[in-house]
Amino acid sequence: MKYDFSGWATRNDLQCADGRVIKKDAFKGQNGQTVPLVWMHNHADPANVLGLAHLENRDEGVYAFCEFNDTESGKTARELVKHGDVQSLSIFANQLKQAGHDVVHGIIREVSLVLAGANPGAFIDDVVMHGDGETGIVLGYNEMIMGQLEHSADEPDKKKKEEKDEPNDESGNVEKKDDKVETIEDIFKSMNEKQQTAVFAMMAEFVDKENPKKEDDESKGGDDNMKHNVFDTDKRDDKSFLSHAAQKEILDLAKSSGVGSLKAAMEIYMDEHSLQHDGISGFVQSGTGDVTTLFPEYVEAHPGRTPELITNDMGWVDAIMAKTQKIPNGRVRTSHVDIRNIDSLSAKGYKKGNEKKITGNYELVRRTTDPQTVYVTSELHRDDVVDIEDFDYVQFQYGIDQISLKETLAVATMIGDSRENSDPEKIFPEHIRPVWTDDELYTIHKDIDFDAMAKELQGNNTGDYFGESFIYAEAMITALRKARKNFRGTGKPDLFITTDMHNTMILARDRNGRRIYETDTELAAALGVDKIYEVTQFEDKIRTDSTGKKHKLHAICVNMADYGYGASKGGDVTHFTDFDIKFNQLQSLLETRKSGQLTRIKSAIVIEEIVTASEDHTA
User: Domains in the chain and their CATH numbers?
Assistant: First the structure.
């Protein structure tokens, strides 16, 4: 085999800086293969390809027999090696497989001549190669290049002559050389910073003279890698020029007319470069087996965190769950005595000799409510539970089940379950009684008249000073305030309102553009309520009363302390888990059995709008 020099490319069983160890036969599959010989792992310029390296797998590691090409760079490198200026080899390998800290397999992509192999032993740098999308390693050994061949026929005689001409000391003995040979790295480290900078400048000038580049070369002005200590491997930049070019070519192709998408551009690029998708590691170049992943792996924006849940606004749900009265029995009865006709029941004066009359009768009102079971169940495959390592999948699913149960109960409490009565999974209104559709004895239903309010305000020339939002806001405030005279609820109620109506009221402005109500606090004070909660589930809800009229819901005003959830002991929210061996599934059940009802008469006010035939889209 013709070669210019040989040396060790890798050595086995040397612990690397990050704790990993290259094991015997890690590159056994490349025994006898040939890879490029490169200068300093730089693939940006073809001039940096110096020749070929023939690999031989040995018990101690991988040995390389290297030959230079006849380019100017190859000739220059041959002289550098021959003169002893460059004494170290380095390799780049990827497609690594590990068993713990031991690297048991990989593929050497190239062997490089380097000024120094970094540490006296060995090192491994994890590198993300943008060209193939996988983690690679660079192995460097500060080994002297061995077995250099001199092809000149007169070399043996020249060697003898040099031995004969060695100088003698005064005693006539041949002067012995110092056994310890200083390496280039030792000499370099002995220099001060100014001297090292001068060496960098000289080396950069030498490379530029030997490898002239075009005026439009991106690296004009010197190689960036020459601007720092070549022996400081921890700070050495890793660049993948091939991958950047491939990505730019595909993106430019996608932007061009007639292509239209990144997917189409990738398919065109694959066809033009004879690439096929292997389904595992990326794109494989046909015939060579070289893997080149065009894009890096995706990185989680918030590593270690559970996926962000996209939910409806849960503020109103939490308010209902926190404020609702808890009754320690599932079967609940409410009793009320109606004495609103107090005049007929008033006390009477007595005149001697007259007969005393019965003051009058009053009406007893009672209502009973039975509980219903409400549940959420889920199944998790154990394979998924084990494979998902970023977060606790079981706890994550339990949190979703809790949200589902609370939101379903809150919606059923305020407006009822919209599922058909024939659906056996419906939460029936005789068990969880909705505030919106409850009997008039418990819920006051007030229709709002926007047209009447507009006429009332316009009569005072208000249209010249206020917009439509102000008319809607005034109509809402007027309707709610007038309904309050019959309100018998406790404390100060909250207002649960549609998002559209809330925005309309808070955006009301005068002629100068100033908002009538700067904050929700000011709006709540005008409405006479404590808190305002937006409820997206109220949007476009329409009910039909006993006379056939249809009413569109805008808001519900109620203090949830006047609404009671009844649950017997053990009937409150309970979590059950089980495991199905046959199907390898974790099963979860979140369940409650309770009743729900307003416990005070006239304790809620519903603001609605009568729907005209032209506005009714349900017909």
Answer: 5-152+188-217 (3.20.16), 240-299 (no CATH), 301-341+378-448+485-508+526-619 (no CATH)
